[in-house]
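Agenda item 2: zinc ion complex prediction
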Amino acid sequence: MRPALIVVIALCLSTPATAVEDSRVPGGVAIIPVEADARPTFNDKPVLTINDNGQHLAVVGLALSLEPGNYILQNKGEQIPFQVMPKKYLEQRIYLKNKRHVTPNTLDLDRIKSESQKQRGALNAFDGTLESIRMILPVEGPISGPFGKRRFFNDQPRRPHSGTDIAAPTGTPIKAAATGRVSLIGDFFFNGRLVVIDHGEGLKTMYNHMDRIDVKKGQVVAQGEVIGTVGATGRVTGAHLHLGVILNGASVDPKLFIPEIRSLPQ
Ligand SMILES: [Zn+2]
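Presented output:
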């Protein structure tokens, strides 16, 4: 085979050069070529751009709540159209003994409101410089709750699942998926003990239901560094890690960033 042909085949076989998979569905990611000095925004929020082997790409997070249809990536007056296709996520029915986790009381609702404001602030931030978009799997274990499932708690409809649940015993160390700065720590009504790591330019990972937190807010953690342990805090039926990946304020499917998730037992 001639060398030129081998190169062509190699280029065709390599998935989008980036470590992220393009998936233009609600809960997915659109990877769109842009010019070198682009400052793209989507729904008025700044969007991550990466330089991938000389190619500049906008990496746009698509919220689970997004209706399928035509959308525009704005870039300094330029409009780049793209399409979001429908995706049907499966249903998940969960039965909880703690009824307050299904129907919170008035005091719980005040707490939930203030916690969700803090969380939204941390997840919508767009600061710092992204070191690398490559992520590692924080915990090994079977997937006990895939991303995007439409959930019913004790038969009552609730928001779809915004992360991937990985089952592991309480006390299992959790590694940072990528280098970043700890931007939020809490002990929340639904999410339990949690850590948010801001990787820069609107990309974050979130770790919920932890037993122990070993990092402090503002601390810089390296990829693979242990940030705490798996637990069963908050609204859970058993010990697991809920891993969230957030991009321009949208929770997106972690398996688009961590291909190993696709090979775990589900
Ligand atoms: Zn979860």
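Discussion summary: The first strand starts at residue 29 and ends at 33.
Owner for follow-up: CH.
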